[in-house]
Give the backbone structure.
Amino acid sequence: MEYKNLLIEKEERIAVVKFNRPDALNAMNTETTLELEKAIHELNEDDEVKVVILTGEGKAFVAGADINEMSKMDSLQARAFGQMGQRVLAYIENMEKPVIAAVNGFALGGGCEISMACDIRLASEYASFGQPELKLGLIPGWAGTQRMSRLIGIGKAKELIFTGEVVKADEALRIGLVNKVVPADDLMKEAKALAKKMLQMGPVALKLAKTVINRGIDSNFTTASQYESEAFGVCFSVDEAKEGMSAFLEKRNPKW
């Protein structure tokens, strides 16, 4: 499928989805959000794709929602817009395949929310993050209040959201909002190298690990541990585990 606001490349079982509205700093309007939903669904169902990377064209990852579009919404339209964004980000968060955010620049508002829905966040040295919605008399609408609290702790999340403060990449790393900061010229190389490390893992085990972590994070420890033991048992029902353990004992690389 051709996309108006996205560029998609596939190489070596890795798909790169690039937000491509650079003149608008890749701001998310309804059209772009629905395109992202369609693209992510297609990639999750594509057996040749094992890892997805999200990044942006130009100097922004995603600089937020499209304020021009939002300014014309009534309360019901705004509610629907928030529900749409939450639906798309929930799918990214819970799809079986790992999703890496390669944050090249501004990740503000909806952009920060998109990055937080990804499994791992790599940031360019020029990246910046924030939820500045309160400056507009709004609050985050794509589950930013919830994901930020879970990622960096409720106290720091309240500080950033209540003040609308934008933090640079090094501070985002310090507070746990990103996993790693790299030179801008190395961002995609680093993201693809990380994806290739994931490709060396057992593919079924990788899917199960993501599912168990995501299901367990909002459960109590006992229930979450039960999820893990069940998934651990499932690993032994497929040939992948036998191949992985045999390869270890025979001192060779597994053949997935």
Observations:
- The chain has two domains: 6-199, 203-249.
- The chain has eleven helices and ten strands.
- The chain has a mean pLDDT of 97.
- Strands lie at 6-11, 14-19, 51-56, 60-62, 99-103, 106-108, 120-124, 128-130, 167-168, 180-182.
